[in-house]
Amino acid sequence: MPRVHVLRHGHVHNPDKVLYGRLPEFRLSDTGEAMARAAADHLVATGTPVTRIVASPLLRAQQTAAPVAAAFGLEIVTDERVIEAGNQYQGEPIPRPIDFLHPKHWWRLRNPWRPSWGEPYVEQAARMRAAIADAAADNPDGDTVIVSHQLPIWVARCDAEGRSFLHDPRSRECALCSLTSFEVEDGRPRFVGYATPAAHIEVPR
Fold it and tell me: Sorted alphabetically, which Gene3D superfamilies does this protein's record hold (predicted)?
């Protein structure tokens, strides 16, 4: 059965340490480019039969997809459904846990089950589920790589495994340039594996 491998983008150049969300100008750092190459090398070395590459429209995802596309001689297909989750903190400094004690954050944090500070988990799950299922249907004779972002990938895995979407972000198993793999049965993604081909590359602090 062909698989859909959802690849998280690589490390991003973000010297001001803001939550970049869907902001368009954020690109991969040199480390992120090395991670993307490592992911492509891993797919080649493991004999993964990649015959289609899909990416979020954001620059960092397109750049991560480029080495995979080059390695397999493919054109990148852009899919808006695998974009980063919407977040009201976009463009602001990355909040520290203590920052959430300030009253200005309370309205945003009123419902962590939804979540109230951004795109609802159920909407992320629905769009990722559809994108993964369509990727399998559109490419039945080979594997597809989709380049996306940490939260949508984690929500897609929770959806496939029947887990609760409510979670501690620090617990996500979705490292930079990791591969979260699915098979699709009767239109429904099923989680089948996780790999970290860029784990050996040190992330700048």
Answer: Phosphoglycerate mutase-like
Pick the CATH number of 3-195 from 3.40.50.1240, 3.90.1140.10, 2.30.30.30, 3.30.43.10: 3.40.50.1240
Domain boundaries, the chain: 3-195
Count of positions (residues) in the chain: 205
10-residue averages of pLDDT along the chain (205 residues): 95 93 95 98 98 98 98 98 88 66 58 75 96 97 98 97 89 96 95 98 90
φ, ψ for residue 203, nearest 5 deg: -90, 130
Closest CA to 1 of 136, 133, 157: 136
Count of alpha carbons within 13 Å of 57, Cβ hemisphere only? Answer: 7
Q: How confident is the model at residue 102, as a pLDDT?
A: 57
Tell me which residue has tokens 């976009």: 90
Distance CA 185, CA 204 (A): 40
Predicted local confidence at residue 95, as pLDDT: 67
Asked whether the beta carbons of 7 and 81 are under 8 A apart, the reply is: no
Closest CA to 58 of 90, 31, 30: 90
Q: Is residue 156 a contact partner of residue 132, using CB atoms and an 8 Å limit?
A: yes
